[in-house]
Amino acid sequence: MRAMEWNGETLLLLDQLQLPGAVKWIECSDVEQVAEAIETMKVRGAPAIGAAAAFGIVMGARQAVNRDKNEFFNQIERICDRLARTRPTAVNLFWAIQRIKSLIETNADLDVPQIVELIRREAESIMTEDIAINQSIGQNGEPYIPKGARILTHCNTGSLATAGYGTALGVIRAAHSAGKEITVWADETRPYLQGARLTAFELQQDQIPVTIVTDSMAGHLMKEKKVDLVIVGADRIAANGDTANKIGTYSLAVLAHYHHIPFYVAAPTSTLDFSIKSGEQIEIEQRSADEVLSIGGIRIAPPGVAALHPAFDVTPHSLITAIITEKGVVESPDANRMEYLRGKG
Known about the structure:
Blueprint: E1 4-6, E2 11-14, E3 25-28, H1 31-39, H2 46-63, H3 69-84, H4 91-106, H5 112-141, E4 150-153, H6 168-177, E5 183-187, H7 194-205, E6 210-213, H8 218-223, E7 229-232, E8 236-238, E9 243-246, H9 249-258, E10 263-266, E11 272-273, H10 290-293, E12 294-295, E13 298-299, E14 312-315, E15 322-325, E16 328-331, H11 335-344
Parallel strand pairs: 4-5, 4-7, 5-6, 7-10, 8-11, 10-15
Antiparallel strand pairs: 1-2, 2-3, 8-9, 9-14, 12-13, 15-16
């Protein structure tokens, strides 16, 4: 299953708020529709957000193709600013935007229609490259998964969070394909229930044994020696290996450390942000309290009660066993060891 399809003119996004109850596609023909889909989490997952934003720029560029060059460049800047405001934590969003802006700057002497065509090709490359990158992450991570492993994962890091195949779920898929007879514990992942709705759905489709658990059950499972490793994705990784991921990840890392269980992060190198030294500099997105106070549009808390909703937390590098990327694996990550991945760029 794919999170998006590009038909050459419009971007089709799988509405992930409807899964698994219904498979509904949203057709986006302009930047604002893409931005709204990202903001409302109809499309989510750092790599998928980056790819969607790239196609948003394509559609915006096409709508400005008949403007003079200066007006065109100004419009592209406005488009990129709008997309950049949708989700502040996932660095892949900014990576994709900057990749296209750099392409435009390099080819600024071309005619506007030629630049628009280059933007289209670049967006398509971002999408196709992401699938190959994820498959490489899976291959690099598979040796870290023992036969018969009982794996705990959090949120959704599969095909629905990427252009295809997945990051942490890609490693799980690779281990399954290798015949390792793994089983998966899927955290339900409040408040959007990405684990219960999306990860369980993907694993079921792949016939990988999966059991849903509430987020608060993880410590009990570890204490009962029913978890062999934890593997999660990432939305931003600082230069020292500190990792921002879906809220609840930090708790899992602390629990895994206490119970001497390996804790792995799987992510593409586009998620690395060497411009920040540590996780303390990562901006944490604060989402609406209504998303915590309600489930499926039904309020579960008394009227007038407040709620806090940071969408992400940061796991210190000292709690991470290894960071798995398409360019290699960094064990016991810190600022010095992370330089290996910068060099591989």
